């Protein structure tokens, strides 16, 4: 019995020694912690003692290499630590470049702390195993690291809701594993790389509410898996590439609030797209008369453009149209009768040149 107990104790001691973190990883984490200030929850109180692989809040290690693999610090979470404090997280300070010494890091999530400022340390581009970089909802400034394209394993790049400036690094198109790109609500300017379509694994590209200029690169339509493209509220100009309507799985296309001009591509109305928002642009010409059984729209918003001519008759052949907004254009003529027009309100049609019939005044 005594022998059994001591063997167990020896085994336990061995396992915990074997799992304890590398002193250099621990030192990097301590330097990372020292650059941050989290006054309300005390999440860093657990970052003490020699073994950073056990019970350090938000830190986990790879069981094989014993190296720090994940840092997961979310300011909005269901964790009991937040419930006890009856508040969401708030943190100030900056992301220390010491983080780059954790060269086995696979995911770095420092999200929704609102007050973290400073820049994204450029050395982040040297973390060869990084798969997830999620810094949403802070107060980060400066430019995205120029060399970000070196992160060949990166699948998620989310820096939304910060105050980033500068342009999209050209190297970004080298991120051949990238599936989810979220740059929403920053102050990023310049044009989209013309070879954006190199991002073949991309399924969501969310870049709304920035200051992007230039036209939409037609290469985007080569991204076979792209399901969600949001470029709304930028300063994009030029025409909508035809190819966007020929994409296999593109379901949401939001281009509203730009300076897009030219005609409405016929392809868009007869595509896999189910949410189409082109509101607040300068699209002109007629609405193409090409709706058909493939047209299935949860929402289609063409309001605040320069569209002319009648509402096409074929629209009644669409399989489904939930929400339709054609207001604030220069449309003219009778509103077609039948589905989907039987459930639409006048607000879908107001402020045109001479539309008539239900739900507006009789012709
Ligand atoms: C973000 O930084 C700006 C400028 O330093 C500051 O005025 C603002 O209060 C910060 N926001 C938060 C949420 O800390
Ligand atoms: C993309 O990767 C290739 C091959 O590694 C490299 O030659 C090229 O300079 C990279 N492009 C950019 C813009 O960093
Ligand atoms: C389309 O975008 C505009 C903003 O430009 C927004 O007000 C509107 O609600 C959106 N339409 C739909 C159907 O979501």
TrEMBL record:
GO terms for cellular component: plasma membrane. Pfam families: LRR_1, LRR_8, LRRNT_2. Residues 23-62 form the Leucine-rich repeat-containing N-terminal plant-type domain. It is found in: Cell membrane. Keywords: Cell membrane, Glycoprotein, Leucine-rich repeat, Membrane, Repeat, Signal. This is DNA-damage-repair/toleration protein. It comes from the Eukaryota.
